[in-house]
Amino acid sequence: MTYSRSLDGLRGLAILLVLFFHYEFVIGFGWVGVQLFFVLSGYLITSLLLKEKENPLGFYLKRFYWRRTLRIFPIYYLYIAFVAAVFIFKGIPEDFLDLLPFLATYTFNFYPLIGDYSYHDLFFTHFWSLSVEEQFYLMWPIVIYFCSRNQLKYILIAIICTAPLVRYLLAEVMLSNGYEASYTGQTVYRFTFGQWDGFAFGALIPIFSLHSVKWKTGWMLLATSVVLVILGLWTRNVLVASGLDSPWSAFGYQIGVMTNYQHVWTFTLWDFLFFLLLLHVVRRSIVTEKLFGNAFMVFVGKISYGLYVYHWFIMMAIFSYVMPRVGNEFIGLLLYLAATFGAAMLSYYLVEQRLLALKDRRYVKPT
């Protein structure tokens, strides 16, 4: 795998979808940006691990986790330390001590199965996806190292086929145990093994060497988009007929909704769409190079991790302290974007970039 600016740009698209989703659902289906992150991670991590697996196991694992630690841990734990300080001085969030063991161990997405949780948490709601990613990083390097490429092909197909079944069964178990449908939908969405089909779709490209296969992916991408729109509008009509609110900006794809068994098929279909889009980017088509390889999208992609970590808290602060005084949602949106980008830029240039420069200071391949 060689570096492509468009891969950063694709990451930029993912974070922009999330940012505009969380701010008053400006893009009502923007939560799918997380699905794009998962597909992209599956591709990048698998490509990296395949290149590294000829090394001894100890070196292979140490090198991988050293690089992942420098990328993920510092600002994540810095943010948690900041919230700990807020808790000490302000007493909020009230459930911080209950959540801390799960946050500290990247198992936060399992907490709703153990204790009651509000999905409108002011500080941590978005950290479920980082937990899923870290759990993927914990298991996938071992699988890659000990399995042949043919075995990996079967494993990926099995993951893609079973993930919807996992989501269905978990939902049925939760509903039979008295959980409300809305809580169940949100929890199923965040369950690790129900989201691994996203990573698997991304991993298909290096495992099957699909970048060299001459598929007509443009038509497949268009057809999948049309299917998504049709199914989304159908689901929206069902929601509206049931008396439920369904904004047009969501196109029928509302997070955590279980109508028409959306919790079973929706994520896989979006993952497949992003798999096709990623395949276009990997092949460096003229269209994707212009869409995602431009300076703005690449810049957004480079600072995307900071944007993701900080945006939720900044948004809640603006809603709580700024909007009551400003009263204009558009001005609030501009302030939210400016503050989030400002924080992410400071984080990237003062902290992240310096840490990333250390990646090859240890566990360097012998020449």
Task: Describe the fold and architecture.
The longest helix has 34 residues, at 57-90. This protein starts with a helix and ends in an 11-residue tail after the last helix. The chain contains 15 helices and no strands. The protein has 367 residues and is mostly helical. Helix content is 74%, strand content 0%. The radius of gyration is 21 Å and the shape is globular. It has one domain (5-356).
Offer a quick outline of the entry:
This protein is mainly alpha-helical and about 375 residues long. It has helices spanning about 5-20, 30-50, 55-90, 95-105, 110-115, 130-145, 150-175, 180-190, 190-205, 215-240, 260-280, 285-290, 295-300, 305-325, 330-355. Helix content is about 75%, strand content about 0%.
Give short descriptive properties of this protein:
single chain, 367 residues, mainly alpha, 15 helices, globular
DSSP helix count?
A: 15
> Any low-confidence stretches, pLDDT <50, length ≥5?
none
Radius of gyration (CA) equals 21 Å
Strand content: under 5%
Distance between the termini: 20 Å
Secondary-structure-derived class: mainly alpha
The largest sheet is: none
Query: Order of SSEs, N→C?
Result: HHHHHHHHHHHHHHH
Give the domain tally. 1
- Average pLDDT reading: 92
Taken from the alpha-carbon principal axes, the silhouette is globular
Give the beta-strand count.
0
Helix content: over 70%
Topology:
Layout: H1 5-22, H2 32-52, H3 57-90, H4 96-104, H5 111-114, H6 128-146, H7 149-176, H8 181-189, H9 192-207, H10 217-241, H11 262-282, H12 286-292, H13 295-302, H14 304-326, H15 329-356
